[in-house]
Design a protein that fits this description.
Elements: H1 5-13, E1 17-23, E2 31-41, E3 44-54, H2 55-62, E4 72-76, E5 82-84, H3 102-108, E6 113-118, E7 125-135, E8 138-147, H4 148-190
Antiparallel strand pairs: 1-2, 2-3, 4-5, 4-8, 6-7, 7-8
Length: about 190
């Protein structure tokens, strides 16, 4: 295990370490993230306790989070590999679909990000918020996104309501002006 990311990470400082996403060698061979913790006695490292979390298990937790209609949350590790995504099959291979996406890049730099971008999987415009999250000593990205059309639909509804109200008020004001004009003309003729 000396070549594994989790072993190199934990043995560098003998502090808890969270690995990159990798495929487990033993059967079954799912994609996993390892959490490695050194075991000590009287200051001496006796060994390393390693827990491997399957990406499909992490993803099942994320499926419970609802981001409006049609939205979802996904997680990317420090190497920009997808660690959990409710719409990707992460059982057999590492996915780096979001490595170049603006929200992921900003969050991996330690900056929160909110705005529109084009989802690399669906090629659809979405509105997203990405936050950096420190896991162990690593910086991961958590992104919540929703299709832009669905996210902006309430604004369109409000715009329609305001436009309708404006038209009604304009017509009513015009009618009042016409009626006041006729009354003024009659009063002028009477005078």
């Amino acid at each position: 295990f000396a070549q594994r990311d989790w072993y190199r990470g934990v043995s560098r400082t003998w502090e808890p370490y969270v690995s990159d996403v990798y495929q487990r060698l033993a059967a079954p061979q799912p994609m996993v993230v390892a959490v490695a913790v050194p075991l000590r006695e009287a200051g001496t490292v006796l060994g390393v306790l390693v827990c491997q979390y399957r990406l499909d298990s992490l993803t099942s937790w994320l499926k419970e989070i609802q981001v409006g209609e049609g939205g979802y949350v996904f997680v990317v590790d420090q190497s920009a590999t997808v660690a959990a995504h409710p719409r990707l099959n992460l059982r057999a291979q590492a996915r780096r679909d979001y490595a170049g996406a603006a929200p992921v890049q900003q969050a991996l730099r330690g900056l929160a990000w909110t705005g529109p971008y084009v989802d690399p999987l669906t090629r659809q415009p979405v509105l997203a918020t990405a936050l950096p999250v420190i896991i162990g000593r690593q910086r991961w990205a958590v992104v919540a996104q929703q299709p832009a059309a669905l996210a902006l639909a309430p604004i369109g509804y409000i715009r329609t309501q305001l436009t309708t109200a404006t038209v009604i008020l304009t017509v009513a004001a015009g009618a009042v002006i016409v009626v006041l004009g006729r009354i003024t003309e009659r009063l002028r003729r009477l005078n």
